[in-house]
Design goal:
With 122 residues, the chain is mainly alpha-helical. 43% of the residues lie in helices and 8% in strands. The protein contains 5 helices and 4 strands, in the order αααααββββ. The strands form 2 sheets. A two-stranded antiparallel sheet has the order 1-4. A hairpin with a 2-residue loop joins β2 (103-105) and β3. α4 (47-56) crosses α5. The longest helix has 19 residues, at 22-40. The chain is elongated, with a radius of gyration of 32 Å. It starts with a helix and ends with a strand. Pfam families: HTH_21. Residues 27-83 form the HTH-like domain. This is IS3 family transposase.
């Protein structure tokens, strides 16, 4: 396998026995803290709020680092849309007619003649 990868045997075995660097250990800790903070916020926090929450916990890291790690982990905040009223009931206009659930024809109530739609009368 060493010949296939064109590395020496001693170099390969030295690489397998190598310990994790301090930078990599810190990076893994940061990833865990960022994930925990992000999911504790129900996925609503973006990188600025995650950074601020970490800062309040006493974890010193730059905001750009938090943003970069969140991007690499694929963590994006959910956006909650503001409620928008779809009905304007603040007017003095007359209400429309009543809805007929069935059509009365020849003295009998016959349903199903309206094609599944409500029929309005004035």
């Amino acid at each position: 396998m060493c010949a296939l990868l064109s590395v020496s045997k001693s170099g390969y075995y030295e690489w397998t026995k190598r310990k994790e660097s301090e930078r990599l250990k810190r990076r893994k800790k940061l990833e865990r803290w960022i994930r925990r903070t992000f999911f504790d916020s129900r996925q609503l926090y973006g990188s600025p709020k995650v950074w601020y929450a970490l800062k309040k916990q006493g974890i010193h890291v730059s905001q750009k680092t938090v943003a970069r790690i969140m991007k690499e982990l694929g963590l994006r905040s959910r956006t909650v849309k503001k409620y928008k009223a779809t009905t304007n009931s603040k007017h003095n206009l007359a209400r429309s007619g009543k809805c007929l659930e069935s059509i009365v024809c020849c003295g009998k109530a016959q349903s199903g003649l309206d094609g599944g739609h409500h029929v309005y009368s004035d």
